[in-house]
Amino acid sequence: MTGIILKQTPIGEYDRRICLLTRERGKISAFAKGARKPGNRLAAATNPFSFGYFKLYEGKSSYNIAEADIRNYFEELRADYEGAYYGMYFTEIADYYTRENNDEREMMKLLYQSLRALCVKTIPRELIRAVYEIKSIVVNGEYPGPPQDKRLSDTAIYTLQYISESSIEKLYTFVVVPEVLEELIEVSDMYRRRFMAHDFKSLEILKSLG
């Protein structure tokens, strides 16, 4: 399967349980036996953000990872305190929205492209966050369009339309002036609270960093 690691949990003395967002079967859980042993071939492959190809076999009650061919570890994010928490926040939203045996290809693509955008120093991370939150709501069919009860600039309205209608590959090809960024953040915050009834731990940490 092609997938990206959303999170991992220690199990027993040496194993890991991972949450994997896949192209083929949506969000699944799998065990990586021995992944916490020093030098184990699955140690790095089962860290959050790792994207690549996973060879799995089905046990009686869960999947097990046999092999992994990782194409992007996103090591630059793990080495960047703020970047790592942005990445964890994005994986939390993906975990919140996705389900097993659903077609989650768009959400997986959105997560991957957003993690890539976090590695680009010329794109403000607050903009990436606002775009990711809004597009997540779009992908899951809940986006109501620009808020009718809020006065927005023409540029902000145009940008919201661009985010909702553009392909995921073209999402992070623009920047906006600070005033428009503030408007986008206000809209994304409002819609996140309305459509994601969940407290995201990494978001609270990000807010404390600001």
Question: In words, what does this structure look like?
Answer:
The protein is α+β, with helices and mostly antiparallel strands. It folds into two domains: 2-73, OB fold (Dihydrolipoamide Acetyltransferase, E2P) (Beta Barrel); 76-209, de novo design (two linked rop proteins). Helices cover 42% and strands 20% of the residues. The protein has a five-stranded mixed barrel. α2 (81-97) packs antiparallel against α7 (201-209). The radius of gyration is 18 Å and the shape is elongated. The termini are far apart. The relative contact order is 0.12.
Question: What are the SSEs and their pairings?
Answer:
Elements: E1 2-11, E2 15-22, E3 26-32, E4 51-58, E5 63-72, H1 75-78, H2 81-97, H3 105-118, H4 125-139, H5 154-165, H6 178-195, H7 201-209
Parallel strand pairs: 3-5
Antiparallel strand pairs: 1-2, 1-4, 2-3, 4-5
Helix pairs in contact: 2-3, 2-4, 2-7, 3-4, 4-6, 5-6
**Largest sheet, if any?**
5 strands, mixed, barrel
Q: What is the alpha-carbon Rg in Å?
A: 18 Å
Spatial arrangement of strands, main beta sheet: 1-2-3-5-4
CATH uppermost class of the largest domain: Mainly Alpha
Q: Show unreliable segments.
A: none
**Intertermini distance:** 37 Å
Summary keywords:
210 residues, 42% helix, alpha+beta, five-stranded mixed β-barrel, de novo design (two linked rop proteins), 20% strand, OB fold (Dihydrolipoamide Acetyltransferase, E2P), 2 domains, 5 strands
